[in-house]
Amino acid sequence: MTDRRTTPARADLAASFLEGQVKADRFVDPVDKQIARSAIWLRAKPSDDAPVDTQLLFGEVFAVLEEKDGWAWGFARNDGYVGYVRSEALSDEVLLATHRVSALRTYVFPEPDLKCEPSQLISLNARVSAGRRDGRYVEVIGTGWVPDAHITPINASEPDFVAVAERFLGTPYLWGGKTSLGLDCSALVQLALEAAGIPAPRDTDLQEVELGGRWRHLEFDMPKRRGDLVFWKGHVGIMLDGELLLHANAHHMATAMEPVTEAIERIEASAGPVTSLFRRAR
User: Fold this and answer.
1) Could you give the CA distance from residue 112 to residue 139 in angstroms, rounded to a whole number?
2) Domain harbouring 38, CATH code
3) 152 in Cβ contact with 100 (< 8 Å)
4) Cα 85 from chain centroid?
5) Is residue 6 a part of any domain in this protein?
6) What is residue 97's DSSP assignment?
7) How many angstroms separate the CA atoms of 279 and 72, rounded?
8) Total tally of structural domains belonging to the chain
9) Distance, CA of 200 to CA of 280 (rounded, Å)
10) Parts of the chain with a pLDDT under 70
């Protein structure tokens, strides 16, 4: 059985690269478009009332397989997540990303002047195509200007993904969110790892499977250390040290840190016991 989150295939339509692997009435080549808004919702169905799955950030590329009635169906090139987004949020022109946002969030200004009214707010790991420089500002081609201190070359990596995650402390919990204005547990992990140059899927179960194939598995009674990932069914957190866990969670409705023993006791009552403990292989 295919996973609709990661397999761009329906009974009537599928991506051409899946021909011979899945059944569909027809197969089409994806057409790349680019997210032109700060962040947009991706949904399982083409309706504003449909539950949200995740967000796509400014500058991300979305591979479109169908556009109909104001909705585009396709998949994110970044992590392969499949779903529907509003067509109006997509740009036909796809600019090569030269930099990514390294600050938690940054304003985009119409001119390289801090006294201008900003046009939008873009978040950590948003992708930008940098142009001219003017003082302390860099042009985001086709969009405006951002402080140069808030972006970094696209191939630059943070040395410590845990330090990236710690910057989200206090951020409101938001199911499907991927920004410092609101995010969920798996987004916290994915964003922090991505900033450190470590690819990871979007959802907790997918992360547990994929990272479990690349990271070292530990028995849970082993001493823990900074950067270990703790998984439950439907939840994940990051160890800050041997005792404290950082996680975006619906109990605190925020990204919070707490003793891992307290989190285990509480989560076990609703979601069951810890399912995995991983440590990145060096």
Assistant:
1) 8
2) 2.30.30.40
3) yes
4) 15
5) no
6) P
7) 38
8) 3
9) 12
10) none
